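Researcher: First entry.
Model:
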Amino acid sequence: MLATRRTLRYLRLPKQLSPLLNSQFQFCHLHTTFPTRSKDPSAPPPSSPPTLLAPPTIVIKPPIEEYVRQIREQYGNYLPAGLLEENEYKLYERYYGRPTRLLQTGETIVREDNLFPPPETPAVEALYAQVARRLSPHEWAQKEEEDDLDDHFVTGSPRLFHTHPLTSVSRFGTFPSTIALPRKVEGETETLIVDVAPQQLVDSAHNTLGGPHLQFSPIYSHKRSKRALDIPLNPTNPHMSNIDADVYLSAVMPGLYAQCLSSLTELRRRLGSDWVLGGDGDEKGVKNVLDVGSGGAGILAWRSIIEAEEERRRDELEERTDWGAPPAAKEGSGLRAVVVTAPDALRGKASRLLDNTTFITRMPDVNFENLFHTPGVDTEKNKAQPRKLYDLIIASNRLLPIVKRFYRRQIIDQLWSHLNPNGGVLLMIEKGTPMGFEAIAGARSTILKNYLQDVGEAFQSRATTNADGSTSDRTTKGPGAIIAPCTNHEQCPLFIHGATDGTQRKDYCRFSQRFRRPQYLQKIAKRSSNNTEDIEYSYVAFRRGTDHRADTKNKISPTKEDFSTTPVDGGAGTEIEGPYTMAQLRNHTLTLPRIVLAPLKRPGHIIMDVCTPEGMLERWTVPRSLGKVEYRDARKSRWGDLWALGAKTRVRRNIKVGSENNRSLSKLIAIRDPYDGGVRAIVKDKTTAYLKSKKKQAKEDRKVERLERKQEAIEKHAEMIKMHKERKLREKGLRKEGDRQTHAEKVRISRERRRKEQEWDM
């Protein structure tokens, strides 16, 4: 029987039987014994003689080469486990290589036939262009939010990865993409404002923050507030009433929380989990946090990061052990939080939202011993009570309200002097407006020039000349680097021309974050139909004492081919295998270009505006012909992502920063720098002296205008008189000429008459 099976297998099939074998045939095994042979031999024999069974159905297999080819055509790159025998599997590998995945029992294959749609007609492309003009980038992001869960997995197939690992590790933003206040904070805020009449709260918010749009709010960054610098509700200002504190908690705090959480999430992605909670390596975790300018929103966001990391570690421990989850750590693994809040009213209300938090009324003075501190060297003179250094400082809206440049420099010195020189992180956030970006860009240039070493010739400090003619040495700078969003340490390509008045600037670096408005903010904003809002902000984060550019151990140059998907033996999933560790991949992302605007997704190609590690602003095009993985990941890319898969076309992008010749129609005052002639600051002055001087200037302008009109009228009148005299003279001359002609005609007629009379007499 075995010989018969082997003979039938290699039998050449006739042509009339070949159509019966298609790709959907079934297989069954040919047994050499009857079913009764498999029973217990000790069982008694049957009373009646056994009935002869019909011979089993024989399914004829084609030759082994034809059979393997049919299996390949039916299943493609995937292969059901156990379908092929050993010799058949060897022939399969010799012809087609190893299968991408071994399908287990119950698994199905989902083919994405519409991944690359056919080219559209001109009419359809015109319709797409019309819809794209009407939709904002945030609406496009909301439309693509439904595909977040499909970025990595295929429905019906567990852990079948599509996104390239270099793309996954370079993502920007939170997941889910819409941020909401913690339920505890939202409920406590409702309790704090329950004693205030709703209409009184709404009216106070509109009067303080500029109407229902809240355009003077530090989180509002749309067209109406692009020129505004003043922040009415500032936690560092001691003058704030109880109703103002309620307005701050209800109208400003949710947006500040979203800004801080979005930027802190990006820091967590770039620095890793050990930076947050500590680990076995050099990272000791963040223990001391200082929040300046947000009234506690930064501490709330950081505690959300800690809770997420602790939950992730508990889940990983549960997967590795059978002992269950470990006990939860108390107060964020020993976190010591400090919030700078000057107003008494806001400090009392914010303490209800933040437990185990220290509130101070002002920022500590500059710690000159730590301003240019070398890592690893103890320079603290007061050993009994040393000054506190912070592992993380979150500074929100600290630079924008300040007018003069040297005042901003003092704020930067304060923040830098209290930063831990052994790995401390300074995060600075401003409004996503042209002026907010210029404040961040100016702070970036100041820190690179004065505090960080080996950052290029553009930021090398110069030797200064003293009053007596002597020359002081250059400032000793320490190690450090920019963590986000920049991946270059050169001059910002959008800030090459320096500060402007901001009214004509079109291109500036900012990022977007969507958050859900609580119910009380819905009433203040008077937007009952939509409870989400998109805010834009500019930020920069530095790490002091640690420079990832000098980390030669984790420096790699990966390619797309370094990563492969292999099936898991005995499992139903796949694993992404690569030769690099997560620390190496994180260090590599700090050298990638970042998408600084929403990608333009066109049929067949994607256009991305990126800021390169060389300090250039370029426009990259990723067409479908570049590769299937590159094209799909480019279509899934978003504003703020780092891009690791290259492009086919790269061109320099023109930058629109405005022109000094363009007349500004705003009420802002540009303060010029007397040394270089550039704009030093832009202020919105509303003092009494300014209003009086403006009124006096307007009066003088009106007087000059009246004199000009009067002089113009006099000149016009004199011109008219002159023209009238000339006309009179011309008329008089014509009359004289006419009189002479008339007299000559009369003389001629008289002479003619006398001549005729003489002829008649003769």
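Researcher: Second entry.
Model:
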Amino acid sequence: MISSKLPIVLAIGIVLGGILAYAGQAGQPMIKPELVPVYQPKGLSFETGEKEIYRASWNGMISIATAEVQTVPMVVDGKKVFQVRVEAKTSRALDLIWKMRDTISSTFDAKALSPSRFTFSQRENSRVIDTDARHDPASKRWAVNRQQVGKRAKIYEFESQNTLDPITAVYLARSIDFKVGDRLYFKVFGGRYRYLLELFVEKKEPVTLESGKTVEAFRVIPRIQNITRNGYASRLNDAAIWLSADERRLPIRLSSKIVFGTVQLDLIDDKRGTQSTSAGARQPAS
């Protein structure tokens, strides 16, 4: 059962993408989707770029996966943007049972954090799926192309209405000056479905990193609601995310229960100041 939940757990903690595939026990309805605020970024602590490495472990004993997250400022068509790239892979031991090599990327505007492109390359055992989503600012619509090997490509289009890709939503949340007791709301998409995401800032508490350093962090509880199906909100299987309480609001830990125990994701390395580039030197991931 570890393997079936692993991509979900990795994505919750880092990009929140995988939460779109799983709902826990039903809860109360959240706010109406049309009432989701249009947040304005207050601070961009990742403006000069950054790179983080996370390790996922089962029951605090066995390392099962790692994920690298790199944020790079770029210039595309004369416009400054950020590109975030996430590469997640299972450990050699788990590869014998279930092998994952997933890559997720997002490109969004450097001022308003408006998304322009999102890609998800899934390589999980024999399962091969490529998702390419593009946002047209003129028509304010998303076009999502999903291709699974052995199946016909599927294309989904919908009006944006302030709907973000999962990575952009995380970076926008990091840029908001929230406090304990706040509830942040985002509309995000995953394939053909759209979701309402709630992040409840439950409390602030110390967290000891693998390095031995203790930092103050916000404990955040996520809930998700499928608004395409008009479903009820669900909490994510006792999941919690810890974001550093400094100006960076950096994800430093995730914990989520699975059938046999708990999977925890921890920040093990962090570097700031990734060199910027231009579209001529490096194109957004495709």
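Model: Note on the second entry: The chain has one domain: 2-271.
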